[in-house]
Amino acid sequence: MLELNHLRQCSRPVVFETGIPSAPYSIAGTAFLVAFHRTLFVITARHVVRDHPVNRLRIFPSDRSIEGLRLSDWWHIEDPKNDPDSSDILLIRADLTNVPKSIRKSNHLLHLTPPSVSEWFDDRYISRFFLFGYPSATNEADYAHSKLQLQQFFLPGRYVGPSIAHNCHELLIENPLNLSDFNGLSGSPVFCLRNEIAISRQPTFCGMAIRGSARSQRAHFIEASTILLALQEAIEAH
Fold first, then answer.
1. Domains plus CATH for the chain?
2. Which pTM value belongs to this model?
3. Where residue 235 falls among pLDDT bands split at 50, 70, 90?
4. I need a labelling partner for 155 at 20 to 30 A (CA). Which of 134, 141, 188, 218 fits?
């Protein structure tokens, strides 16, 4: 059974090596770890990486890790409709070979199989949505003490409707801790759970957050089917 703690561990901060000795790291946003066809992928929003070299990206597989994942290949997804939101996906192939066994055993991955969109879409108006991410306002590199200050946020919400972008949707997000903005939440995995006490259902992966505004309390996400298609194309291209 998928528990919230398991899903929480799938979400990881996006850390970059800057190449600057006095400020060696920066935190850019959120990613999540996925197992698909026996392959480990790191998935985040394309704009999170922007112009940073992907080979300077550091994704730590757990909160106890001191070694990042070894990253090999990466793909920017091209949307046939040339929509900047629908193509805002970066897939990165990774492996755990340089990570100690003790960390690998406790590592949590999101195991994806190609479900139909209806597994979450049909119940979208009676489901509780949520995401796990690392907002920029509460996450930073502490250079004085040579460590990263990381705080993950759980943000619940409800479905509003389709976004103007192809295969994207909009959520109304609760903000109980009064985040001043939603910067850094791009790349967060989005899940839902049917909001009926009498029905026992597991959390369902719905997609990935790509943008949002604390002022409007809205967040937009790319639906899961688009991400699954991108993963399948990456496997077939290898």
1. 4-237 (2.40.10.120)
2. 0.89
3. confident
4. 141
